[in-house]
Known about the structure:
The protein is mostly helical. It has one domain. Helices cover 79% and strands 0% of the residues. The chain is built from 14 helices and no strands. Helix 8 (164-196) crosses helix 9 (202-215). The longest helix is centred in the last third of the chain and has 43 residues, at 262-304. The protein is globular. The two termini are 24 Å apart.
Amino acid sequence: MKDPHYTDAIRHAWHLARQHTYLWVLGIFAAMIGQFGLSSVISNAFSAAASPTPYFFSISSVQFHVPSALFSGEGAVLLIWLLVTLGALGIGLLVVSIVSQAAIVQAAASWFGRKKLPEASDVWHDNMESFWPLLGLLIVKTAALAIVPILITLGAYVAVDGGFGSSMLFLVLFLLATTVGMVVTFLHMYAIGYIVVERYRFFDSIIAAYRLFSQHWLVSFEVGVLLLGVGLLSALVAFAGLPLFMLPAIIMWYLALQTGSFLLYALGVLVGGLLFLAFLFLVGAVYTVLSTSAWTYLFMKMHKHGLTSRIAYYLGRR
């Protein structure tokens, strides 16, 4: 029997995402809680590095202008109602997103293990029971990832008027922060696997995830870089689709210029924007299902059989 190979994860995950397109709906919601994983970590790192002023130093410069009418009479009631409504929608979206992410993990584990997907009602019920530990993992991950922009912007602040030493310090902090972000992402996905697939408790899942990562740290980084490449390719596909989905808008803009109709112009902007937004959601959903399924496959193989780093394998042949 052929030893498991981590590149098989991408192949099996792609087959799952392609054959079971209803998982894309779950992928739309799962993407809203950061399932772009390494792509978001790297993009946040570069955004923080590109900022001339560290974001935590510029918070005090933000000015808010709130009309005084909102705090009196009907305005206050309207404001409270709006905040309560938005809060309820946010909580509902958070619940659906967390359960959707867990549902993808459970569906992928069932498919890779038994070549059979569980019933949708069973998936929802099972993962609602795991909601609180999964929410705890998300909070821990979010708090840990806050270190990434803080370290990088601190390095940028020091290196603004510094010399070579300050630039080297910034480079070290950038690499350190990016590595921390990647490790947090790996641990988060492994801990989700232990909670959803193995039914571990919250703290037990974190401990087990750390042990699994420590045994397969090089493989984790190799897969992380591989999935980062897939994420960049997905982004290129999304931007490549911009001219195609803006074509109706361009046609309506042309007609608006010929007829002088502002309505056609506005309709063209609306149609083009909605089509492109739907396409972005589709690309994001497919990538989320693909990446989550790939991590689930890796988790199952690492947890039960173990995986060998391809870098270590090729170096060992020499």
